[in-house]
Amino acid sequence: xxxxxxxxxxxxxxxxxxxxxxxxxxxxxxxxxxxxxxxxxxxxxxxxxxxxxxxxxxxxxxxxxxxxxxxxxxxxxxxxxxxxxxxxxxxxxxxxxxxxxxxxxxxxxxxxxxxxxxxxxxxxxxxxxxxxxxxxxxxxxxxxxxxxxxxxxxxxxxxxxxxxxxxxxxxxxxxxxxxxxxxxxxxxxxxxxxxxxxxxxxxxxxxxxxxxxxxxxxxxxxxxxxxxxxxxxxxxxxxxxxxxxxxxxxxxxxxxxxxxxxxxxxxxxxxxxxxxxxxxxxxxxxxxxxxxxxxxxxxxxxxxxxxxxxxxxxxxxxxxxxxxxxxxxxxxxxxxxxxxxxxxxxxxxxxxxxxxxxxxxxxxxxxxxxxxxxxxxxxxxxxxxxxxxxxxxxxxxxxxxxxxxxxxxxxxxxxxxxxxxxxxxxxxxxxxxxxxxxxxxxxxxxxxxxxxxxxxxxxxxxxxxxxxxxxxxxxxxxxxxxxxxxxxxxxxxxxxxxxxxxxxxxxxxxxxxxxxxxxxxxxxxxxxxxxxxxxxxxxxxxxxxxxxxxxxxxxxxxxxxxxxxxxxxxxxxxxxxxxxxxxxx
Length: 585
Prior knowledge:
By secondary structure, this protein is mostly helical. Helix content is about 60%, strand content about 5%. Helix 13 (about 410-435) runs antiparallel to helix 16.
């Protein structure tokens, strides 16, 4: 048979490999070998021509599932689930679903029972943290020898879960008497769903779980901010919060995709190892991914200049939800930021360290200067001041994270210790604000003048909380928390940042002390200073004070719990210093 002439060579086109089909017959000395082993119930078929052997391997670089078939035996690697490790967030999520279904059958007059059910679920989740106090449990781990896990219940996780679940519990207590005009079933379902996501986030050890947990914590919060139907301010606040968070999530997802493209893995510990050895052609992609991921978390932590949504969102949201965002929402953002910087991106510390230091200085300065400009007679000026104060506090929380880039991850203990102090006293301040709002719907700073004459215990409690935030005695816990943050900056060699922080602490003293002094001013002095006060809100509603009413028991319990916790921590400030010196990872 005549052979075809060879194909002409086409320049610029790679020659495609020719498919070869090998057919062997018995005449060409092909040996067929079939082995059947009864001992291990595996069939092995080998076809060899001379000394050849057939081997088929299937592997997916970073996949967690691997199935091997060998002559020696068959092993299917299936991950086990540590149900106790995931019990706290799982319990909160289960209670949320139960409440949503129960809302269909509970009559209207018994809707408050749903709130008490939510409180019971959060208490149960907090109790489930006790068996985990050793902090050495992990689950959803790779079985390929890398020891990377998607969920880890270490000391950092347990502390943040304690903060998140405790903050959600106090928010639930504040909300029980404040949901009469709100859809009860939807409110409690959304609150518990957000709390479940917030409790999951500090345990996440891969970027996929981290992003999912962050969105589970954030999406219900959008609805909670705008849950007051017919309220223009609430709808506007929810829209601003939603748009800013969507932008933050989009930027963060783009950064996460870049990091995955450069490293080929999503697990934080694996990313840390592979970023040290990124090929040269992928180095720019990795740097862009790190930068975009940090920008996304800067939105979530309300760091300047990504803080613009905070004041309007806090003012438009129901007061308990504003407290929830100020404490739990901030804890979620900072937990994610700590995980991606200290655990996943330590090799880029020379990039995110200076960037976070600048953000910390800018955030605390913007927050304190804006708080100084609040008008005491403006409607909801008290909530607005607390909102700007939370922005300034975010700047203080950023300082130890920036210091970790220079002095190691032991500095993270200072951020967590400060976050615990801030959570207790800030929730207490919002609780007293909710109490005052029952008689002064406008919630102006001017409404707090002479509060001691009508509610002496509330005035003393709020004064204590404000002094803690200022870092003055008898709020010793606030002073020691600021000392730990200040020390972390000095130990890391960030002397300029320590100076900026000291200046901002002095600035904050003015508005904290001014508010504290107003609590004890007599009515005569108040009238001489301000004269007749306009009692009409910006939306035209009448904001004249109502007659004092007895506070609901859950609201009183929230104030008492935060006051007792603040006093206990102030009585043992060395616990804060000791905690700040512990390696949480």
